[in-house]
């Protein structure tokens, strides 16, 4: 079969990596961000239990205590032995201007001190947005860096091994400086939160070639300093292919729930498509086309079997989206970089380009290291 010109270029690009990069590491940990009410969590768990025989789908969960929905904490407390729980600082909500930094820090310190059973505690940060001026960026970076030590000093010493400072920066110099400040806490892990933003109140994070470059700098510094790396608020079915090969150790996302609420379902490697016919922002995919694309990507799960349920119930869409991320993340952990690049590029040209750039940089780094030795 004759490929279109763009596809031929991708195939040529894929063959470049054939002999050089075979990255096989453990799966990136996926923290499911639970920004829903208790009744919805119970419904999701019930549907998951009926289909899989396991009562709780989440092995890693992130929640923002300052904007917690009703009744989530007791559910997480109940499953805390089976699930890694991360308390988020609410940086996303500061980014959206729902919370103010000073107020959030005070409330958060009080909350953390009275809930010492979680596994990871995120330090307050002041996220950058795509519309910030140079002056605003400098101010936000200063506030975040100053806050690392002052916030940590309000918590008992037992928290120190569980703290996760969040690093920001739009240039490698800013990222390096932010990492240096964060490392003064001697943390076991660092987070990165400077991605492109879009939508009302900068609500949606997404990867750009610039943010991928900064993420690579960040991940490299984490390896050098022997701390694990986490990325905040990014992790769709295309972006996790890129995150996996940077590589980072963990990511979190609420995108699987948000997409389901808007009538969207995930397709591995591609992203979200609409199945309810009620979206102006996402492409509508007919039942027949959706089945064909899922077949091509090799996905099947109990939650997308029934087309009518998928269209009518956001719980089914959410669990299908969760299953896509879970399954794809696992598949990627066993996949050669060349194969991932080939598959991603054939379905999602933009993210295929991102991954090609990441792998190119790795190839350059490997060659440079070999020349030195
Ligand atoms: Zn499915």
Question: Can you tell me about this structure?
Answer:
- It is a single chain.
- By secondary structure, the protein is an alpha/beta fold.
- It has a domain at 25-253: Alpha-Beta Barrel (TIM Barrel).
- It contains 15 helices and 13 strands.
- The chain has helices at 5-16, 38-52, 72-78, 91-95, 101-114, 134-152, 172-183, 209-224, 239-245, 255-261, 287-297, 307-312, 314-333, 337-347, 349-372; strands at residues 29-33, 60-63, 84-87, 120-122, 163-164, 166-167, 189-192, 196-198, 204-206, 228-231, 250-253, 264-267, 271-274.
- A nine-stranded parallel beta sheet has the order 5-4-3-2-1-11-10-7-6. It has a two-stranded antiparallel ribbon with strand order 8-9.
- Helix 1 runs antiparallel to helix 14 (337-347).
- The longest helix is centred in the C-terminal third of the chain and has 24 residues, at 349-372.
- Residues 1-25 have low confidence and may be disordered.
- The site of zinc ion (ZN) has 6 residues, from helix 13.
Strand order of the largest sheet: 5-4-3-2-1-11-10-7-6
* CATH topology heading of the domain at 25-253: TIM Barrel
CATH architecture label name of the domain at 25-253: Alpha-Beta Barrel
Strand content: 5-15%
């Amino acid at each position: 079969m004759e490929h279109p010109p763009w596809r031929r270029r991708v195939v040529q690009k894929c063959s470049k990596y054939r002999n050089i990069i075979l990255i096989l590491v453990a799966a990136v940990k996926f923290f499911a961000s639970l920004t829903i009410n208790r009744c919805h969590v119970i419904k999701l768990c019930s549907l998951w239990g009926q289909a899989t025989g396991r009562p709780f789908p989440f092995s890693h969960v992130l929640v923002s205590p300052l904007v917690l929905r009703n009744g989530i904490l007791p559910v997480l407390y109940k499953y805390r032995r089976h699930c890694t729980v991360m308390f988020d600082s609410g940086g996303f909500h500061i980014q959206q201007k729902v919370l103010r930094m000073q107020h959030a820090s005070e409330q958060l310190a009080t909350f953390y001190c009275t809930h010492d059973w979680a596994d990871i505690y995120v330090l307050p940060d002041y996220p950058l947005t795509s519309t910030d001026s140079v002056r605003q960026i400098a101010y936000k970076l200063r506030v975040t860096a100053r806050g690392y030590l002052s916030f940590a000093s309000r918590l008992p010493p037992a928290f120190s091994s569980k703290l996760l400072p969040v690093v920001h920066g739009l240039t490698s110099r800013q990222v390096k400086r932010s990492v240096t400040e964060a490392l003064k806490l001697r943390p076991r892990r660092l987070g990165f939160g400077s991605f492109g933003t879009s939508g009302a109140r900068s609500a949606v994070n997404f990867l750009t070639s610039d943010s991928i470059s900064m993420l690579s700098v960040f991940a490299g510094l984490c390896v050098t300093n022997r701390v694990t790396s986490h990325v905040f608020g990014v992790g769709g079915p295309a972006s996790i292919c890129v995150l996996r090969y940077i590589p980072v150790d963990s990511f979190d996302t609420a995108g699987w729930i948000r997409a389901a609420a808007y009538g969207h379902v995930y397709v591995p490697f591609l992203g979200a498509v609409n199945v309810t016919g009620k979206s102006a922002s996402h492409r509508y995919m007919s039942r027949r086309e959706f089945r064909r694309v899922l077949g091509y990507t090799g996905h099947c799960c109990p939650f997308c079997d029934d087309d009518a349920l998928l269209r009518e119930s956001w719980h089914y869409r959410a669990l299908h989206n969760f299953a896509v991320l879970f399954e794809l993340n696992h598949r990627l952990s066993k996949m050669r970089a060349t194969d991932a690049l080939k598959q991603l590029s054939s379905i999602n040209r933009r993210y295929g380009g991102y991954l090609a750039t990441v792998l190119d940089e790795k190839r350059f780094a490997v060659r440079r290291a070999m020349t030195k030795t």
